[in-house]
Here is the input.
Amino acid sequence: MYYFHLQGRSPMPAFFQEYPYYYLQHGVPELYYPQYRGAYYLPFQTNYNHVLPRSYVREGQNIRGSWTPFSWVENYAYAFSGPYNKAEVALTFDDGPDLVFTPLILDKLKNYGVKATFFLLGENVEKYPEVVKRIAVEGHVIGNHTYNHPNLTEVSDEEYQSQLQRTDKLIQQLVGYSPKFFRPSYGAIKENQVKWATEQGMMVIQWSIDTLDWQGLRAEEITDTVMANVLPGSIILQHSGPGGKLQGSVDALDRIIPQLQSKEARFVTLPTMFGTTKEK
Ligand SMILES: [Zn+2]
Here is the structure.
């Protein structure tokens, strides 16, 4: 059995030996870029839910990440990564579908026999229904990513529920199921919203590796980010939305998939990773 090794990563700090799940979600705190250190919910930096190699953190760069407290993981159907005792990783693609990148991604996934999870926007489901159907027919899982990508922490409860329900209905009509998996746009969500989604039978899934592919990064850069941070249970964030600068992200699949498969990692959908169904 081959185990993942973390290149250049320091040993798991003592605190995390007791809480390995947190370690996997949030990485080694000392690797965080110093300018982002601060007091949050715990006595170490947890503001970002993945570890970026320092070479990718440019001066003044705004890194998106999770500011949500650990307790949400325990109280709700809410996760940043899957089990760390299985050699499974999940590819996830947000903001689609579109007519350019989603088909290219699907071609590559088919070529490698890999299944992934696509978090779709309702407005794009309406525009590109044939692509939505292709995603489903080819065995990938569809998740809900809101209707038109609002910052959910700034909308009313009614608008929040409407964003999910409209998108849910559109997906249901096209592929025959209401998605269990929901990823909030920007990863931004409030506790009562996570609670509501949990009560509706959904799982709220963030990510543990942000490739930052939407910045138009090259395939090499995206691959390096993944390979430097990947662990069993990693949930990798890429995009497949219209009008993006995503060719590097598409091309990175030709590196990420073979490289991780050579380490005996299995690419799974989120329902497989979490041992549940794709539908609510
Ligand atoms: Zn998004």
